[in-house]
Amino acid sequence: MANDQTMSYWTWIFIASFLFVHSHSFYLPGVAPVDFEKGDLLKVKVNKLTSIKTQLPYSYYTLPFCRPKTIVDSAENLGEVLRGDRIENSPYEFKMREPQMCNILCRVTLDEKKAKGIKGKISDDYRVNMILDNLPLVVPVRRMDQESSFLYQHGYLVGLKGIYAGSKDEKYFINNHLAFTVKYHKDLQTDSARIVGFEVKPFSVKHEYEGTWNEKTRLTTCDPHAKRTVTNSESPQEVADKKEIIFTYDVEFEPSDVKWASRWDSYLLMTDDQIHWFSIVNSLMIVLFLSGMVAMIMLRTLYRDISKYNQLETQEEALEETGWKLVHGDVFRPPVNSNLLCVYVGTGVQFFGMILVAMIFAVLGFLSPSNRGGLMTALLLLWVFMGIFAGYASARLYKMFKGTEWKKITVQTAFMFPGIVFAVFFVLNALIWGEKSSGAVPFGTMFALVFLWFGISVPLVFVGSYVGFRKPTMEHPVKTNTIPRQIPEQAWYMHPVFSVLIGGILPFGAVFIELFFILTSIWLQQFYYIFGFLFLVFIILVVTCAEISIVLCYFQLCSEDYLWWWRSYLTSGSSALYLFLYAAFYFFTKLNITKPVSGILYFGYMLIASYSFFVLTGTIGFFACLWFTRLVYSSVKID
Fold it and tell me: Secretion signal: which residues (predicted)?
């Protein structure tokens, strides 16, 4: 089974590598509509057990649920494996539009180990996830503010904790009876129908029967012949050693006006859409207002400054001049650790390209949640193929800094950022392995990731560097003096640390509201499908990073401090610090994570996300300042 999975990874990777230009065909597998005739067999698949308390997924069959004769893993793409999805077959089978009442699935007698396993999952609020016709199982919950509408919780709880009347001991009860509702949309011309909804109401029932147990045993608590069905959990099934659990289920089929193309709409409905709309518009208006002010100040100030400098004629006036023109002979002097700056700028270009293309695909609808793992897979592939732009950008900048060893800078670009991220990811994956969670990436998948890195990304970085280094050197608009100019003592508010920390506030402010929804979708396991908003916020982020870096760079040059290269990168990049701090705030205020391992995983993954955000925003700020300085110093007459 493992070999088949590994083969599917390799086949998928090679196909994606050679046919990347047609990559949209990989984003929508298995989402074409399926027509079912009356009586057609419907097979329910089971997915991982999930908990927002532990963030550690487990395979469905780690608990003593009813099993089919042979457990078969469904073929999974790279993104699904990285998400911890483990999709397998199950003994739950329906017949289209043929209701079933009180179907007995199996009988399980618990031992101490099995009972302990179930109790642990109940304590950690684990939910069971199932899939029918590519639709995830949901539990409808009526909204308090709107009686006619429902919220949908993904998966049903394994069980509940409770206390018997007159007792103080807490007991554990398992949901062993499932009342399924399959919603379908019928074709008016034919008798076929399409599935548009898959819901469940779980119950805990201590089933009873007469005589000894056999295949033909009829339950007294749930009997289709006597039309006795389960409607509540008043006599629940306790979980304890030697306890007998009988798993049963009902199936109802309900016609629906929802068409197949719109069946995901209810899943993707935001619970607080009004707050979301207001927050996005509010954020957009504030940023646009600030951007307008910044642009107006910059245009007026620069126009006045350039006009004044170009009118200087006498020696006396020239001696009196102060401001950014004084440092024209040092402003393009290569910075300290210029190689490292080239590497980070190249990596930032790679990130920018990956996110931009992924956003476009998502806005066009190619990365729908119906394609599980599609977004993760697309991001990985785009990162790999954007390596060519990383190599090109780092080599062009390296040559501008008068560098000659382009192979050295290429190796650093290809390995530094991915190496750091892979090292952190490997440690986190080892922790997940230690917890025996299905979220641990298998060895075959890990090997596939290494192949994507070494086999495709690294060669593309070399190709990009080779092309970039062969291009003519970018000439500066002014010459650099041989002897560096002394930088005068700076005011406290122009101190590098202070100005860098101030610079990160505005970019973070532009995205932090959307960040709340993204963190909620990741850590509270909700669907995120508002890529239109996200794309808008991304544009706001780019504009804000560029503008705040230019403004602070201008103030810095006016203070006769010409060490702007690294400062421009760190100014907007410091927003990543605020992102990480907000992630910590979110952890302590919104999440109920109990296990230390889960906390380490959270902060580990958020560290990777913040590091990536730093590289992206820093690169945007750097290129904005590079464009600004070249534009300004080419606009004045230097004697």
Answer: 1-25
Question: Is the overall model pTM greater than 0.70, yes or no?
Answer: yes
215-258 pLDDT tens trace: 778 888 887 776 677 777 778 888 988 889 999 999 999 999 88
Ramachandran region, residue 252 (left: φ > 0; alpha: ψ -120 to 50; beta: rest): beta
Condensed to tens digits (0 to 9), the pLDDT of residues 286-308 reads 677 767 766 776 676 667 666 76
Q: Is the predicted pLDDT of residue 20 greater than 50, yes or no?
A: no
Query: Which segments of 311-334 does DSSP mark as H helices, in order?
Result: 315-320
What pLDDT is stored for residue 637 in this prediction?
61
Which of 333, 329, 332, 334 has the alpha carbon at shortest distance from 638? 329
- φ/ψ (deg, to 5) at 217: -60, 135
**SS in 3 state form for 562-577?**
CCCHHHHHHHHHCHHH
In eight-state DSSP terms, residue 206 is: -
For residues 256-281, give the mean pLDDT. Answer: 72
- The 10 Å Cβ neighbour count of residue 256 is 17
Buried b (16+ CB within 10 A) or exposed e, 578-595: bbbebbeebbeeebebee
Q: Which residues have CB under 8 Å from 582's CB, separation 6+?
A: 508, 512, 515
- What is the band of 276 on the pLDDT scale with cuts at 50, 70, 90? low
Q: Which residues contact 362 (CB under 8 A, 6 or more apart)?
A: 375, 531, 534, 535
CA angle in degrees (0–180, nearest 5) for 433-516-596:
30
Per-residue burial over 178-208, b if 16 or more Cβ lie within 10 Å, else e, is bbbebbbbeeeeeeebbbbbbbbbbbbbbbe
Residue 522, judged by CB atoms within 10 A of its CB (0-12, 13-18, 19+), counts as middle
pLDDT at 274: 64
Length of the chain: 639
Burial of 171 (0-12, 13-18, 19+ CB in 10 A): middle
Residue with tokens 């629906």: 256
For residue 274, the number of C-alpha atoms closer than 13 Å in the C-beta half-sphere is 0
Residue for token pair 């991982």: 48
- From 83, 10, 210, select the one nearest 522 (Cα to Cα): 83
